Automatic annotation (TrEMBL):
Site (Raises pKa of active site His): D144
Gene name of this polypeptide: purN
Entry-linked PROSITE patterns: GART
Keywords (A to Z) from UniProt: Purine biosynthesis, Transferase
Pathway(s) per entry: Purine metabolism; IMP biosynthesis via de novo pathway; N(2)-formyl-N(1)-(5-phospho-D-ribosyl)glycinamide from N(1)-(5-phospho-D-ribosyl)glycinamide (10-formyl THF route): step 1/1
Record family assignment: Belongs to the GART family.
Transferase as UniProt keyword: yes
Name the UniProt record assigns to this protein: Phosphoribosylglycinamide formyltransferase
CDD domains given in the database record: FMT_core_GART
Length: 194
């Protein structure tokens, strides 16, 4: 299975996924990284690990459908079977949703449906929650709304800061995401063999 990782920023999850793929722990190959941000550190991280990384700017296209059609052309050219969103801060539209129906998952730093959207970690701290976590879910047209595949809790300690909580959440993400991607890819391979 060939996987494309979509990311807008730092790319610590993309890096964890690429490294897991290289050691055979992902059950698939990360063949492509796509970013909507020209200077996203994830692009260089991926290239340094030998993975093709492409920036496509939404501003260069007339609308979302044209932008996603360009991404789709790239995905088709690279033979991508599955899309993994890892900090891709953009809603997916019908063009990609229809082409990769049931073959696109996302990770979000909260226990959805709590704290969807931007700055989930800040939202949890602001709400003075004592627990938050990580959710991995199938992507649908909504913002962080698709069917949940896996969740893991993270406790928020007294005096927790954004930095300490982010570190705790990222540590969970970097283990949970490769394991769940492996599980989902296996299910798809088995589904196709039946
Ligand atoms: C991750 O914590 C991910 O859960 C979050 O963005 C971060 C990306 O970090 N995604 C969302 O908030 C999606 N709504 P990374 O670039 O270091 O992987």
């Amino acid at each position: 299975m060939k996987v494309a990782v979509f990311a807008s920023g730092t790319g610590t999850n993309a890096e964890a996924l690429i490294k897991a793929a290289k050691t055979g722990e992902l059950g698939g190959e990360v063949a492509l990284v796509v970013s909507d941000k020209q200077h996203a550190p994830v692009l260089e991280k991926a290239r340094n690990l030998g993975v093709k990384a492409e920036h496509l700017s939404p501003q260069s296209f007339s609308d979302k459908a044209a932008y996603e059609q360009a991404i789709l052309t790239l995905l088709t050219k690279e033979g991508i079977d599955f899309i993994v969103l890892a900090g891709y801060m953009r809603l997916i539209g019908p063009t990609l949703l229809e082409a990769y129906e049931g073959k696109m998952i996302n990770i979000h730093p909260s226990l959805l449906p709590a704290f969807p959207g931007l700055d989930a970690i800040g939202q949890a701290l602001e709400a003075k929650a004592d627990t938050t976590g990580v959710t991995i879910h199938y992507v649908d047209a909504g913002m962080d709304t698709g069917p949940v595949i896996a969740q893991q809790q993270v406790a928020i300690a007294n005096g927790e800061t954004r930095e300490t909580l982010t570190a705790k959440i990222q540590a969970v993400e970097h283990t949970l995401y490769p394991a769940v991607v492996k599980q989902v890819l296996n299910e798809h391979v088995e589904g196709e063999q039946q």
